[in-house]
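>> Question from a student workshop board

For tomorrow's exercise we were told to take the sequence and the ligand below, predict the bound structure, and bring the output to class. My setup keeps failing. Could a helper post the expected result so I can at least see what it should look like? The ligand is zinc ion.
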Amino acid sequence: MIYSMILVALFGAVMAGAQGMAPRCADDARRLTAAITADSLLAGTLARFVDHYPRRLSGSAMLEASLDDIIARLRQDGWNVRTQPVMVPHWERGEESLTMASPVTRRLPMLGLGGSIGTGGRPLRAAVLVVQSFAELERRATEARGRIVVFNVPFTTYGETVQIRSRGAIAAAKAGAVASLVRSVGPYGIQTPHTGGMAYDSAVARIPHAAITMEDAMMLQRFQDRGEAVELELVMNGQWFAEAPSRNVVIELPGTELPQEVVVMGGHIDSWDVGQGAMDDAGGCFAAWRALHAMRALGMKPRRTIRVVFWTNEENGLRGGLAYAEQTAMEKHVLAIESDEGTFAPRGFQTNAKGALFATLKEIGSLLAPINASAVVEGGGGADISPLEKKGVPVMSLQVDGSRYFWYHHTDGDTFDKLDAKELNHCAVALAVMSWCAANLP
Ligand SMILES: [Zn+2]
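>> Workshop helper replied:
Here is what the output should look like for this input. Compare the format with yours to find the bug.
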């Protein structure tokens, strides 16, 4: 109650551009903003990291080498780095290809979906049935038997369209298909297939499941609509290996008064085995690192502990997030913040916080008006902090201009050049101000 009064006063002060009852947070926000926006430390660090360590899929030597590098560099920089051991799934796609065999011959870009089985060591050749929804597949189930089903489903929202990727193999196998292909989950393409997670159901056969480009999905639709039968030849060699050891990487500024109370923030350091995983999600990890780095460089000591985590295995297992929640069960998390929606121009935050806490976070958000990131709205957190959320921890997610994120998400196009140094800095500012002020609430 008292802090909400202080924050109301603070809000008034900020709006008036004057020093109010809580000048510390507003002053600190200005100092953090100035420090982080002054240089290209974040962009330079992120670029070097993703250039050296692209394709950090769980179970890969690349992911573990990237973690070794992060740990070594953080230690060199004086951080007391902790790691949290966690076993992660290990799947590799192997060699794969898709060829249109009839009525014209052409290689089609494709990416197997994470966890898919292969085609049994030989090319799988079959006629095609294109459908535009699960409902159409059900209506035409008799035509799907023995065929490769192509789901040509246009992108609406990620949450809705991703259902086709997640459950397409199950639906196609139920109808007797021998393989399934999905139109990549994204609103725009330049012949770029998007990979991602998928599911099987033990009640139906496992069939190979891959993504093709949106352009080719539309082309196959046109062939079908003209009454021209299409045959495709699919080669996939996806394989599971034994679970592999990995780690979450943790650094923090210990709280001076309430060290056992924690504000945690970060992103996931693993990625798919394509592109550089720059926006998904090395950018989120390093923006959080940059935020904490700025606090330390400014000699700022928080009341509560502010912690940065590089979570492992978000993309195909969530083992890092689960291990973090388990291994910190004795601590009190007052807030968990994730950045995993790209690192473009920040707009603010979503949060599941209610009542007084929501009002407080909204007031803190107002301090981000100088970088146009003051919107704090109701919503959820992120995957890595969902195990904390289940335990009742309030969660937040950094919100950015998402207009281009799903052009690149899970593709070879997720590379550093798509990001902007100033926007990256602003993401770090938003994380710094939110975590700092939340950790210093009375
Ligand atoms: Zn991600």
